[in-house]
Amino acid sequence: MGFDTLFQISIILLFLLFVFLVLIASVGFFFYLEVKWVILPLLYYYRGRKAIYSDSSSDKSKEHIAIIVIIYKFKSYGPLFFLKNIFVYCSGVELLKEGFEEQHKPYIIYRCSSPKDVKEVIKIKEADKVWIIGHGFKHGISFGKERLYYCDLEKCYKKSYIMQLHCNEYGGRSLIDYLCETKESKEKSFVCDCTRDFYENREFIQKILEKMRKKEF
């Protein structure tokens, strides 16, 4: 067998190896996408929805953590309401529930489907710590055709901290700017200036819960 023949065979084998590696990489990449955007979201959706619709034993008349969950209805977004709720259900409410129960922190999950629902929760004096999970912008929450602007809540009771876990683009003042007066309450609170996905929310929640366990929050 001549040198030219061996060289040609080597080139063919290298090409086949390259094709094989590309196929393996493609399968791995698509498997990664399937796990991240199909399998895990289905698991998070089930666990999150179960937690959101569970009963809370905490007393509204006593100091507690308010977890405000925006639930979207068909009348607000049409068929897209289901996609809107996927983000909400996957954002880690079950992590908050499990974490607060583990640390014996009183909490109540408030399912809100309108600006009025949210206002009623924020007006509760005993709900002095607030988590908000839904869709919105820095200055408010979106309910499809309706919107809640945080400036409408300016006269409500002040809060120890507020976690604004929805998209926060377009500028304006956050709820933190209106209801967190002290330096400590502002430092404990969270708001960003960009969009968010449910993976970011879950990661953030896990970090805060870990800080709580270590008494650093």
Q: How would you describe this structure to a colleague?
A:
- The protein is 50% helix and 16% strand.
- The protein has a 4-stranded parallel β-sheet with strand order 2-1-3-7, sandwiched between helices. It has a 3-stranded antiparallel β-sheet with strand order 4-5-6, covered by helices on one side.
- It has helices at residues 3-52, 74-77, 81-90, 93-102, 115-122, 175-179, 183-188, 198-213; strands spanning 64-70, 107-112, 127-133, 136-137, 140-143, 146-149, 161-165.
- Strand 4 and strand 5 form a beta hairpin.
- The model has no long low-confidence stretch (mean pLDDT 90).
- By secondary structure, the chain is of the alpha/beta class.
- It is elongated, with a radius of gyration of 24 Å.
- The termini are far apart.
- The chain has a single domain, classed as 3-Layer(aba) Sandwich (Rossmann fold).
- The longest helix has 50 residues, at 3-52.
